[in-house]
Amino acid sequence: MTLIETLEKLSNACGVAGREEEVRSLMKKFLKPYVDEVVEDKLGNVIGIKKGDKNAPKVMLAAHMDEIGLLVKIISKEGFLHFAKMGGIDDRLLLAQKVMVYTEKGPLHGIIGSKPPHIQKEEERKRVLSWDELFIDIGAESREEAEKMGVGIGDTVCFDVKFARIGKNIVIGKAFDDRVACAVMIEAMKGLQKTECTVYAVGTVQEEVGLRGATTSAFGIDPDFGIALDVTIAGDTPGVKEIEAPVKMNKGPSLTIADSGLIVHPKVLRLLIDAAKEKKIPYQLETGLPGSTDAARISLTRSGVPSGVISIPTRYIHSPTSMLSLKDAENAVKLTIAAVQKIPEY
Ligand code: CO
Ligand code: ZN
């Protein structure tokens, strides 16, 4: 499969934090041909292992499998589903979204409803409705009917968005945070024929709720180097100042210098920049990011692991539909391969 085919399958799959099953089984299938062994740890992280030379450094690549989404919290007497949020979702983006509710009897279509604007009071219309004023309408007439349709408390809810290519290099879809990096990691494993390092390609769980899967998988692997593959905000859209988000789409993968949870080890930053320069791969640098990635946890594992981040610039992260350039994803694959091959020199 090509990068875009892998991304399409991963993007259309549902994997709200803690319920990554569908993505996990795809990851196992996609990694398998390119690694010596695929294992799953006790928390559900998928680890593809490619063995290198004895005593050569161990490198951990991490791309998180989970996405932001909703959970069914209450089924009302009238058959409406009230929900809780999983991960950082902006309430303004919830209203009128089409969603899929994953029940024990299979997925159901629904829409996020609210009081129609015609009958809202003037001040109601001006303010943002918060998540607890909204509900999911699955067309059920009562709680009993909703339950008969398969709905249960705790069922996960994903945005109903289908992947599409809208330009030569531009794609839109759901959960590019972080499925694009999952696809990049798979492609990088495909491209890494013989490596001196032993490479652990890890699809982590529960990143969006606190980098949890990376914490346990890194402890288990005990790597010498860590590289998180994730997305970063492409700030090249109207209303965003350069100082707020300097990275742009189509200008190459971004290398983090520091974010709120990690100061990239100078040795790793050097490695990534040298690898990019040597292979003439375009790259961008960013620092002062408000969020963090799995690399923050990997770096604090045991007695410490020099770690860095390669990000794919992505527009509209943490909204139902994101946009990115395949060129940036392909360059992220090249950079990951080049960096892994260069590690023994550092
Ligand atoms: Co995220
Ligand atoms: Zn992410």
CATH topology of the largest domain, anyone?
Answer: Aminopeptidase
User: Overall mean pLDDT score?
Assistant: 96
What is the SS-derived class? alpha+beta
Low-confidence segments, given as residue ranges, are none
Instruction: List cofactors, ions and other ligands.
Output: cobalt (II) ion, zinc ion
Beta-strand percent range: 25-35%
Determine the fraction of residues in helical runs and give it as a percent range.
25-40%
Please tell me what the overall shape is: globular
Please tally the β strands and state the result: 17
Write down the Rg: 21 Å
Largest sheet: 11 strands, mixed
Order of helices and strands: HHEEEEEEEHEHEEEHEHEEHEHEEH
Number of helices: 9
The CATH class assignment of the largest domain is Alpha Beta
| CATH-level-2 architecture of the largest domain | 3-Layer(aba) Sandwich
The quaternary state of the protein chains shown equals single chain
Descriptive report:
The chain has 346 residues and is of the alpha+beta class. It has two domains: 237 residues, Aminopeptidase; 91 residues, Peptidase M42, domain 2 (Elongation Factor Tu (Ef-tu), domain 3), CATH 2.40.30. 27% of the residues lie in helices and 28% in strands. The chain has nine helices and 17 strands. The strands form two sheets. Strands 1, 2, 3, 10, 11, 12, 13, 14, 15, 16 and 17 form an eleven-stranded mixed β-sheet that branches. A six-stranded antiparallel β-sheet has the order 5-4-9-6-7-8. A hairpin with a 5-residue loop joins strand 4 and strand 5. Helix 1 packs antiparallel against helix 5, helix 5 packs across helix 9 and helix 7 packs across helix 9. It is globular. The mean pLDDT is 96. The structure holds cobalt (II) ion (CO) and zinc ion (ZN). The site of zinc ion (ZN) has 6 residues, from helix 5 and strand 13. The site of cobalt (II) ion (CO) has 3 residues, from loops.
